[in-house]
Amino acid sequence: MKRLMAAFVALAAMSSVAVVVGSGTASAAPRVQQYFIDGCGMPAVKVRMWTKPGNYKTVIALDGLRATNDISGWEHNTRIQDMADSGVNVVEPIGGLASFYSDWNAPSNFNNQPYRYRWSCAINQRLIPELDRRGLAVGRTGKYAIMGISMGGNSAMVIGANNPRIDHMFSMSGYLNLSAPGMREAIRIALLDAGIEAGVGPFNSDSMWGPPTSVRWLENDPFVQIGKMRGKKVRVASGSGLQGRFPTDFLGLIQGAPLEALSLAQSRAFQVQALVNGVQITSDFPSTGLHAWGYWSDMVFRAKNQGWFRD
């Protein structure tokens, strides 16, 4: 019961936590390019990207639960686009509020969503072929990296595991064991709250992957799908739940601490599962860190500085 309540409290807070507490290495940003891709039945998806000739990898950066339709949370709150100055092209698909970047079973009926989320289709069948067309399949393998925070961390692992065009997957503060006690119920609460907070009405998780007994929950659980990650480079990162070098207010602390503590527990369990299953995995578990953008930015730049994005 304690684990169930902890999951409820933590994930119900997800939609109200994306605390801006800092950013990564700063430098002049490369020229940004913006275009739209077909949304597979959704409205066209905006894409913003930063590229430079001669770079050795292209990474797709996924947002969190409270993604907005103007620009990515990564651009709102960090400078990861600066990586394009020194080796790594950055691609940010925009939007995906409460979507888990997945193909849903149906439009959300709680808020009369006018279309079905088709994010897996948009990324796999529209975005990656467009990146290929633009010559961004760079590096020795000619394959892509994908990364995400919180909700996007889960999604990066699932999309990467199932797409042969992706060979690097990186989850930051993700929830990587959806079959753990209380997680499916907690995600239900988080989706309800995310839609209400955004002013579009509550999202129904039954419209996403069906009831909690549906096999689609297993198909979107990185812990269950880990066997498909063999032969790829996997990385997980999470803070400890203790405040670190970035200042935050009391609300950010009481919301961000339990979220990050839960993510840390799941990320460590996922790391063990990966090692047992022969998956090449590295980790970044700093002694401090909340569920907040400054720490996620630091995680990305540490990965880059350690050479993780290289083939």
What's the story with the biggest beta sheet?
A: 8 strands, mixed
What value does the Rg take, in angstroms?
Answer: 18 Å
Low-confidence stretches: 1-10, 12-29
What quaternary form is this?
Answer: single chain
What's the count of strands? 8
State the CATH class. Answer: Alpha Beta
- Output the CATH topology: Rossmann fold
Output the structural class: alpha/beta
Q: What is the strand content?
A: 15-25%
Query: What is the CATH architecture descriptor?
Result: 3-Layer(aba) Sandwich
What's the helix and strand layout?
Blueprint: H1 2-12, E1 32-39, E2 42-50, E3 57-62, H2 73-77, E4 88-93, H3 119-133, E5 144-149, H4 151-162, E6 166-172, H5 183-198, H6 205-209, H7 215-219, E7 233-237, H8 250-276, E8 280-284, H9 293-305
Parallel strand pairs: 3-4, 3-5, 5-6, 6-7, 7-8
Antiparallel strand pairs: 1-2, 2-4
Helix pairs in contact: 1-5, 1-8
Question: What does it look like?
Answer:
This protein has 311 residues and is of the alpha/beta class. The chain has one domain: Rossmann fold (3-Layer(aba) Sandwich). It contains 9 helices and 8 strands. The chain has helices spanning 2-12, 73-77, 119-133, 151-162, 183-198, 205-209, 215-219, 250-276, 293-305, and strands at residues 32-39, 42-50, 57-62, 88-93, 144-149, 166-172, 233-237, 280-284. An 8-stranded mixed β-sheet has the order 1-2-4-3-5-6-7-8, sandwiched between helices. Pfam families: Esterase.
Keywords:
311 residues; alpha/beta; Rossmann fold; eight-stranded mixed β-sheet; 8 strands; disordered N terminus; Esterase-like; AB_hydrolase_fold
